[in-house]
Design a protein that fits this description.
The chain contains 8 helices and 21 strands. It has helices at residues 87-92, 99-104, 191-197, 208-219, 232-241, 250-262, 304-309, 339-351; strands spanning 15-17, 57-59, 70-74, 78-84, 94-96, 109-117, 122-134, 141-143, 156-162, 167-180, 183-187, 221-222, 228-231, 266-273, 279-280, 288-295, 299-301, 321-323, 326-329, 364-367, 370-372.
Length: 374
Amino acid sequence: MQANALLCNGCYGRLMAEPPSHDHNPLGRADQPSLNSGPSSAGREVEPPAAGAEDVTRIRVEDPDGWLPHTVVDTGLTLQWTFHVRAEHLLNGTCPVPAEMASRASQASLDIAFVHVARHHSRALGEQQTVKLQRHSKQPLLTGISWQSVILPGTRVSARWDRWKKLRLAYTSLGRPVVVAGTMVRYAYDPRIMTRDLAAFGAHVDGIEELVLITLRELGYLDEQGCALLPHQALIRNTIERRAPEQPSKKEILRAIERLLSRGILTWQQGSLGLGGMLHYPTRRGEKPVQLLCYAPTLRVAEREDLRAVDGHGTYSASAHRVAGHLMRIGHLGKDASAEARAAYRQDHQRAGLAGPHELPRGYTYVREHERGM
């Protein structure tokens, strides 16, 4: 990453850090997630390790992907490229295209074919006609696109345009769907973009803990597995500033962070600061170490009940074991939880004696405890 990279999401500016030290735990590569249950149990202390007093440092974070089509291959008659869907594309019905296409397309509108690509076959998901080509903006775009409901921020798209023919947008199937931080994922994706763009995608902030997590996911440094990291003071400051005018107090945010740490939802990790205050993770030799709060999205293979909860199809066999009750995000699909799911969540929440409201959070459904593989 270069020292002149953009600030966090381009708009949150001067983030302040306080630098202690701790061992780091490097994670995996993008598009090749390892199936695990989230952060390790190590490093769950509420307070970071002590460190000597140092000057406050300004932090800069580079945003993933850059929003532009990449890996562009131009043969003269055929143009191919890859890009990742962002939340803005889904919300506005747009699709970025290379400048080469915008300059060569003689027509003002195009037809699109959406394709599901698996290891041994491919099949059509649908077609859309007369999508408008907007060539005169800074970034050429297709507008008026109706994305499929199963397409999420971070989904990788392989595009192919043969001149005078339809534009082909292909999604690569994972084979076995996975559940990432409570969201069903069926196609190859960039974990960093999913962490960033799904943080507040259709979300309703109902508590300080959720606000802390959204702030961390939207502003933090993202590693290749989609973990989001920020210094303690940077997270506190931005959480306060982003909830104006009803700003939470610093004490409320500190208590929320303590609860998230005690439950293992957040952990302590160590990064470092490079030239110009650029944040790096894991620690780089010769740079100033800085203690970071880390959010790591949980990742697991989807169960039968998960598929049913989002009206999916297909089952997967496995050895028998019990699956605990859990939440499943469905708000991004334009769906609401059924009355049965709300009642089941209310009943199980009360039976467990859990604190807080017994009502199912908006944008989620509830999958009750069940046996898998029976």
